[in-house]
Amino acid sequence: MIFNLFKKKDHLYYLNLARKALAAERYADARTDFQEALSRCPEQAGENGEIRDGLVQAGDGLGQLNLHEAERSLNAGDLAKAADHFALARDFSCQPQLKERAAQGLKKLERMSAEPAGKGAAAGGAAASAGKGAAAAGHGGSSCGSCATDHRVAEPDLPQENLSDEDRFALLVHPLPLGARYAALGEKFRRAYLLIHEGDDRQALPLLQQILLSCEDDIVIYEVALIMYRAGRVHECEELLNRSLKVNPTNSMSYLALVHLTAEHRRIPEAIGLLHRMMELDIIADQAQFMLGELHEIAGDKAAAFEAWSKALAFPSMAKSAAERLVPMLGEQGRVEEAKYLVKKYLKGCC
């Protein structure tokens, strides 16, 4: 959970995420973030080379992980899973020697599938079906490339130009915490929201203001607040977010926006107070508990951050992210066995 609600996510933002993921050997996350960085990076930018090198390192890291899993599955007799991992290792790796190892593994499975019945018909049948999956480069199951962590959800890979406004709007609001309410706000709001998504706040704002003339809706107020922020009218943004919460005291998005806003302007005690209120009201308490640790860390209070992240372990949705923060802190304190326990319990479940 990073305080970035209002910040532009340029190539440097994703590059920073990728660096951290690569250093932590979270290769799937690193590869995704390097790809995002590359898609946003100007050709003349100095970071271009680092991004491309990072993609190679992340790809090879994933390749090695999948080779290890493939060989382990092969030794265990799970030929279908071995084929999936060999195929992933071939697809992710950049080093020729890694690609060759993966290719040789797939050839070995093909030979096994062609063995006579007396040499293991059951195993041969499994390998044959595995070979089909490998040829299609199937990336399902528990393979290392499929266990994306934390906060990112891939957008649907659909031809946006062929979608109606209704379908585009539905795709955009579906992942939102209050997506069902967004979808019920009517045609005028839909037009405004699509304009916002296209970067046209100027035309969207009058539509939202017209809606507010007839009803006080917390979501509409929230969207106007974000427009005010993007226009540099931060004080008006804050007033609108508070207004949104008066209309609906449980609006999680308005709470989060206020936390981000106050934290961004170094009003840490206010932001901490908002998070405590969210937890008392059980408003996305899991995220609030984790963010509390971030705020204490920003304030320089490592002990309070440690306590907050320790409590965040109780929330399954935040446990892995909390463990990632706690492990280095435990290491600094010399509490190696506790750090190992957290790694084993929360950080080694990828494959």
Query: The biggest beta sheet, please?
Result: none
Anisotropy-based shape: globular
Helix proportion of residues, in percent? over 70%
The total count of strands amounts to 0
Number of helices: 18
Taking the alpha carbons of the first and last residues, their distance comes to 24 Å
Roughly what fraction of the amino acids lie in strands?
Answer: under 5%
- What is the CA-atom radius of gyration, in angstroms? 24 Å
SSE run: HHHHHHHHHHHHHHHHHH
Q: What class would the helix/strand composition place it in? A: mainly alpha
Query: What number of structural domains do the residues give?
Result: 3
Regions with little confidence, pLDDT below 50 for 5+ residues:
117-161
Give the overall average pLDDT: 81
Plain-language structure description:
With 351 residues, this protein is an all-alpha fold. It is built from 18 helices and no strands. It has helices at 11-23, 27-40, 48-76, 79-92, 96-113, 121-135, 165-173, 179-183, 187-197, 201-214, 218-230, 234-247, 252-264, 268-280, 285-298, 302-312, 316-332, 336-347. The longest helix has 29 residues, at 48-76. The protein is globular and about 75 Å long. It starts with 10 loop residues before the first helix and ends with a helix.
Write a concise keyword list for the protein shown above.
3 domains; single chain; mainly alpha; Serine Threonine Protein Phosphatase 5, Tetratricopeptide repeat; 351 residues
